Amino acid sequence: MTADDAVGVAELVRRCYGDTYIHEQIYDPERFFADQEAGLHISEVAVAGKSDVVGHWAYVFRGAAVAESGMTITDERYRGHGVASQMEANLHGRLVQRGVKWVMGEPVLVHTATQEIAVTRWKQGAITGIRLKSIPHIDLEGFEARTEAGRISLAVAFGPLAPMRGHDVWLSPEYAELVALVIEPTDWPRTIRTEPPQDPVLPEATVLGSTFNDAMASAEIEVETIGADLHTAVVAARDEAQAAGARFIELRIPTNEPASALAGLLDQGFSFAAFLPEMRGHADLLLLQWLDNPQVDRSTWQLLNPHIESLADAIVAQAELASERNSR
Ligand SMILES: CC(C)(COP(=O)(O)OP(=O)(O)OC[C@H]1O[C@@H](n2cnc3c(N)ncnc32)[C@H](O)[C@@H]1OP(=O)(O)O)[C@@H](O)C(=O)NCCC(=O)NCCS
């Protein structure tokens, strides 16, 4: 994406989303191009004729080894001709050159196009979960009538660009089956362990950090170290986020220590959201979710294949169970 292309990208986004796109920086071409030059993201564009920008796809860097896919748009007149797939393939080549090892993304559920790219075009890529009603409603041009009412749910995808080192993943039994389902179609070298540590010597205090996103009415709780007080520490952070107005809370738990097998938080309202390997050093992350209202209307979801359908069944069922157990 050149500086001139950035102007065309803003116009493309405006044609597609009006002024409602959640990535506001894209409307300011100078800033968006400067961000790219500063190494915050890389963008690929598709150009028709001399300078008509008709497609855009970006990867946002999340540390040195991870890049997150996003801001994917093909002009409606040019859809279905492989434009998005080609932009994505070009980006993967550029990411490998820059030393990025892992990619992740959030395919929408209103159509299967980006789920398909993650599952079939990313080498060893997979859908690893669904964040239920995690963001406010957005209308995707061409898909308005088919989008989930109210807040919308997004899939989570992961793909390795480098070989994954094999290791154990420690999980509480209530989440283990879901992670097993996620990794079933992959060759990711992971062994799931659920046995609690013998005579655990845990630090007294859990170390965690929380952030609240006003525009999304959501919060993230990042657990750094699991301590003996994990459950009370998480409940305190959850209550604080709820009081601030969070309607969706994501809780991130590292899975590289046996202590992670103790992190069963269904009774506190946290159900499985997704599994993201390699996200923190070499630690895989378990993503859990708390929802203010776990009733999900799945009637508009388009899911790519039976595997993702069964994952969705299990995720929605566990969200309902967690809410029930939490309100007891
Ligand atoms: C999603 C989007 C970027 C796809 O762009 P595109 O240039 O048409 O995509 P491609 O032609 O490269 O298609 C990629 C794959 O998705 C499939 N696909 C494309 N549009 C699809 C649709 N509406 N429904 C289901 N599958 C679709 C194609 O079949 C193709 O797979 P194949 O080559 O194996 O047949 C475009 O539809 C768009 O801009 N939508 C609105 C914004 C949006 O939804 N962005 C994605 C957010 S995650």
Explain the overall architecture:
The protein is built from 7 helices and 13 strands. It has 328 residues and is α+β, with helices and mostly antiparallel strands. The strands form 3 sheets. The chain has a 6-stranded mixed sheet with strand order 1-2-3-4-6-5, sandwiched between helices. Helix 3 (83-97) links the parallel strand 3 (66-74) and strand 4 (102-105). Helices cover 29% and strands 30% of the residues. Helix 1 packs across helix 2 (29-37). The chain has helices at 3-17, 29-37, 83-97, 113-121, 173-183, 230-244, 306-327, and strands at 41-48, 52-61, 66-74, 102-105, 126-135, 152-160, 167-170, 190-193, 207-213, 218-225, 248-254, 271-280, 283-291. It has 2 domains: 3-160, Gcn5-related N-acetyltransferase (GNAT) (Aminopeptidase), CATH 3.40.630.30; 167-327, Aminopeptidase. The protein binds coenzyme A (COA). The site of coenzyme A has 20 residues, from strand 3, helix 3 and helix 4.
Pattern of helices and strands = HHEEEHEHEEEHEEEHEEEH
**Global Rg:** 20 Å
> Biggest sheet, open or closed, and with what strands and sense?
6 strands, mixed
Overall helicity: 25-40%
